[in-house]
Amino acid sequence: MIPPKEEIEKAISEVKKYVDQRIKEFKNLKSKNLTTFNFRPFLDIEPYQADIFSEACFCILTANSSAAMGIKIQKSIGIKGFKNLDLKDLYEKIREHGHRFAMQRAERIVKLREKENFLLDIAKEKDGKKAREKLVKEIYGYGYKEASHFLRNIGFDDVAIIDRHISRFLFEKGLVKPRKTITKKVYLECEEALEKIAKDFKLTQAELDLYIFYIKTKKVLK
Question: Which of 68, 86, 100, 217 is paired with 166 by a 20 to 30 Å CA distance?
Fold first, then answer.
């Protein structure tokens, strides 16, 4: 087994420019409520614009699915579509891409429209962990992972996204005891382990997440 230090160093040497680019795209969302995502060479998809609300919708779409599918749907629906399409049309747009939970996701996105101003206010927060608690309490269907994903994607550096790729990396490297279920306690334990790694490499949590995702998938997505 390759030690985590060697794998992360190798990932940094291979894709640092793409990780830096993605972080800049995220920071634009936080400061301007608008960014242009460019996922080439990892996905053959034209660059497209997103705002904070459409990014919250992306995080709904990618849960129990994949980042690649969420990206394709986000580009297809667009900023205005997430805010204005009726439930039926939104469902059809999501279903076209083969999403297993198209109607449930469409319903959640329509419901999320009530919280657009709340999401914009959250983007102004300074502390990602405090913002996460507010999101989990306020946004229907958002757990720690979805809330952390959204915050990272809108420019917060201090929360970790404990998805299957990240948890598997930690378990395989013996950094955290393997668990079948990611409870809140396990989530925070994993996040603490990642904080130590990030500190060792002088990386933010946001950067480290992208590097580990690349190690597991050979892609820098979001």
Answer: 100
Active site residues: 145, 163
Length of the chain: 222
Which domains, and CATH codes, for the chain? 4-217 (1.10.340.30)
Q: What is the CA radius of gyration of the chain?
A: 17
Q: What's the pTM value of the predicted model, to 2 decimals? A: 0.94
Q: Which two tokens stand for residue 194?
A: 């990642």
Q: State the residue for tokens 């996701």.
A: 105
Residue closest to 33 by CA, chosen among 147, 134, 124: 124
Owner of token pair 């190798």: 10
- b/e for 164-180, b at 16 or more Cβ within 10 A? ebbbebbeebeebeeee
The β-bridge relationship of strands 48-50 and 35-37 is antiparallel
pLDDT, one tens digit per residue, over 152-190 is 999 999 999 998 888 888 988 888 888 888 889 999 999
Q: E strand or H helix at 50, and its extent?
A: strand 48-50
